């Protein structure tokens, strides 16, 4: 077989580096796998608890606890950068392992006895679901940075985040319906089965030509993977230190932490606010959330990435942040019309549109700031700080509600995108890229 024929054949085989369509499909499906349990744990269960008159403090505590593992991602990311079964790819073995853990932990939450009166049990099971969800997320993001070209990253992030949003929304509405019809345990067990089929996706592809499909099949590590793989903890921590102390890295990290607080506050307060303050049912909330996030996910998939590609990351980040500042601040000053369901629906829709588009732009920005040598660790550091902020925001809901009325809570929330707006103006992508290029040329060889 001549080289030209071999290259043509490889293009249509299941190699992520050789097939753009396969990349888009694979990472979208893997993000759906994260969205299904997240929709149940972060949204369906809190809404169900609110419907059954659990206190804002209990609900906020549950959400805060299950959000903690998403902050622990930084502990497992260096492990993935240091160790792997390289003949199967740099990150693919970890993706498969994380997906298996996600399936088993998701099944376990349906086995909790009397969950309404066993919040501790829900917290423990939810904690492990989040742990393996975060584990799979780290591996997936690291693999994405490895195999997705820079010019495809914004578009890919649009598809990935849109797919996750749709996965969260569909699991929420379907899960809520099943909980109300079949009971908690049966509903959760039924939903968890769907995550089982998704594991077939990472099992059936390879990152690069020549790699093994399974540990017992033929193949060997790619020369590119060997070159990128670090073999000592010293090199990993030196590299991550060098790239994270760059000004743009530090600025983005702090901005993402600040925005994480906003995400946690909004996601946790919405089911409490709509169900306990506005007298919605958990079904009404789930339907509205699902509709608005599916719409946001759809536009994010097909428009979000394209806008970032066309107008630039920094400009679009600024526009999205200004939009969210105005939206949340305006809502806080209009309590007299909160009883109008159309107003609440419009607010939720506009917020999740802004949130989805902002997330796509931030993820694309974070990927561009990553050094591929330690991409999993660096990208995870950004995400861990965001999720730490999210956990803090979730935990603050109960305290803030006890101290003040809802309108003041929304004013405080609007401060997060305001701070992030000023921080984003200080990021310099070109200067950061030049620094990474110097590291690649000189630093690694010097160790």
Automatic annotation (TrEMBL):
InterPro entries: AmpG_permease/AT-1, MFS, MFS_dom, MFS_trans_sf. It holds the Pfam family MFS_1. One of its GO terms (cellular component) is membrane. PROSITE patterns: MFS. It is a multi-pass membrane protein. GO terms for molecular function: transmembrane transporter activity. Its main location: membrane. The chain crosses the membrane at residues 21-47, 59-80, 92-113, 119-138, 159-181, 187-205, 245-266, 286-307, 319-338, 344-367, 379-400, 406-429. Residues 248-447 form the Major facilitator superfamily (MFS) profile domain. It is found in: Membrane. The keyword Transferase does not apply. This is AmpG family muropeptide MFS transporter. Keywords: Membrane, Transmembrane, Transmembrane helix, Transport.
